[in-house]
Design brief:
The chain is of the alpha+beta class. Helices cover 25% and strands 39% of the residues. The protein has a six-stranded antiparallel β-barrel. The chain is rod-shaped.
Length: 355
């Protein structure tokens, strides 16, 4: 090879070596600060605030059950009926007892009044006999009053053979069938009241302070995600679940639509406005700097990236992170491949970068 050609090739190799590797394109996002909002989102289900286990107040054999599981019922509607035969006989016997006690009270009262009319001037009058007849009349009146109360109780017991809904709602359980013999207080039907429904979510204990501080609660049904509903925290469970170690939080729906059925799945969002604005970045932008969160910020003049520590305000379930400190508006943050970044690696913004 001629010496001139070798000289040209040597100069070209030297220029290539001096220029170093070509800058690597990276995806970046320009930092913009917006009014911050701290929010937590959990999945839950729609439940009735009141769910009552209904039972007969007397025992007996079920002979009728005109409702089925899932039926919507009105207050006062018949749910089940017991065989009333024995209680009807008891009511009839008590009616006869009242009639007998009424006759006895009338007779003893009349005898007392007749003896009283004799007067103390009569030689047949005796004070002890007057007191005896007065006592008999009073006892007969007491027995009559007792019999009447027992008659009213027997009538109530006969009425108890019919189990009726105490409110509008939906039947969620029917553990008893026609023909079964039940005892007093044994659950026959479970009624979920439809007057007030709410959403229930399970929240870990480390998030309870944020839940309590939330000033806005919204509930979105999975069947209608674009129509969020207003909610209000009604109750935060005082005892953690034994298996999941979470606390049940119940949210009353302030404007529940008719299509919000019991058992539906819902997304509940707890939010609170914060004082300082934040920059929203994808969670993939986060890196680690000595155990603390950081991001790689592009320096266009030097074609290098600088690892900058940041303060994270919150993490959202949608894959975004809110940064409250450590960045300036207009900074270009690398949002992908942060695990491969090095301070000495030359980089440039990719032409298709997000802005």
């Amino acid at each position: 090879m001629p010496s001139f050609a070798r000289l040209v090739l040597g100069l070209a190799a030297g220029l290539i070596a001096a220029s170093g590797p070509a800058p690597r394109p990276v995806r970046v996002q320009t930092v913009q600060f917006t009014p911050s909002e701290q929010a937590l989102t959990y999945s839950g289900s729609i439940q009735a605030r009141v769910q009552a286990d209904l039972a007969f107040r007397v025992g007996g054999k079920i002979i009728e059950r005109p409702v089925n599981l899932g039926d919507h019922v009105k207050a006062g509607q018949l749910l089940a009926r017991l065989d009333p035969t024995d209680l009807r006989w008891s009511l009839g016997a008590q009616e006869q007892a009242v009639a007998a006690d009424a006759a006895d009270a009338a007779n003893t009262g009349a005898e007392f009044r007749r003896y009283q009319r004799l007067g103390r001037a009569s030689p047949a009058f005796m004070e002890s006999e007057l007191e005896k007849r007065q006592s008999a009349a009073l006892m007969a009146e007491a027995r009559l009053a007792q019999a009447r109360r027992q008659l009213a109780q027997a009538a109530d017991q006969l009425a108890y053979t019919e189990l009726r809904a105490d409110a509008d709602g939906a039947i969620t359980a029917l553990p008893m069938q026609i023909g079964q013999v039940v005892s007093s207080g044994q659950t026959v039907a479970t009624l979920a009241h439809s007057r007030e429904i709410e959403a229930e979510v399970d929240v870990p204990e480390n998030r309870l302070p944020e839940i309590r501080a939330a000033d806005q609660v919204t509930v979105a049904l999975w069947s209608a995600p674009d129509h969020p509903l207003r909610g209000r925290i009604r109750e935060i469970g005082a005892l953690a679940d034994a298996s999941s170690r979470t606390f049940a939080v119940r949210i009353t729906l302030l404007d529940a639509p008719p299509e919000a059925g019991l058992g539906m799945t819902a997304t509940v969002r707890f939010s609170r406005a914060a004082a300082a604005p934040v920059a929203l970045l994808p969670a993939s932008a986060l890196a680690d700097a000595a155990g603390k969160p950081a991001v790689w910020v592009l320096d266009p003049a030097a074609s290098r990236a600088i690892l900058r520590p940041v303060q994270v305000a919150s993490l959202a379930n949608d894959g975004t992170v809110a940064v409250s400190a450590g960045l300036r508006a207009g900074d270009q943050v690398i949002t992908a491949g942060t695990s491969e970044m090095r301070a000495e690696l030359p980089v440039i913004a990719w032409a298709g970068a997000q802005h």
